[in-house]
Amino acid sequence: MYLFTVILIFTILFVIAYVLFIKQKGEKLENINKGICPQCESPSITTRRIKGGGCSGTSNVIYMCENCGYEEEFNLNSGGCGSGGCKT
Question: Lowest mean pLDDT: which of 47-51, 75-79, 82-86?
Fold first, then answer.
């Protein structure tokens, strides 16, 4: 019974930590979409690299701040072939 309780507590803590991580990542992406660096809050964010996954519907995008050197990668939904997102 003790082992089950410990596993349950760790599972709940893991889920809470993951939800908070996703929320924080979403807030960073929201600021980046506005053109603002999430770290230094200056309007100097640029796209460093975009690597598409074909028709899978996701693209790996690396954003970089020219002011402070902040860099982070995001996996963004590009819409897939149904929306015309992978035209050649």
Answer: 82-86
Closest CA to 75 of 52, 45, 48, 46: 52
List Cα–Cα distances, 83 to 18, 50, 61, 74, 75, in angstroms: 30, 19, 19, 21, 18
Written as six digits, the tokens of 84 are: 């015309």
What pTM did the predictor assign?
0.67
**Closest CA relative to residue 82, chosen from 49, 55, 63, 62:** 55
Residue 78: strand, helix, or coil: coil
DSSP states along 2-56: HHHHHHHHHHHHHHHHHHHHHHHHHHHHHHHHTT--TTT--S-EEEEEEEE-GGG
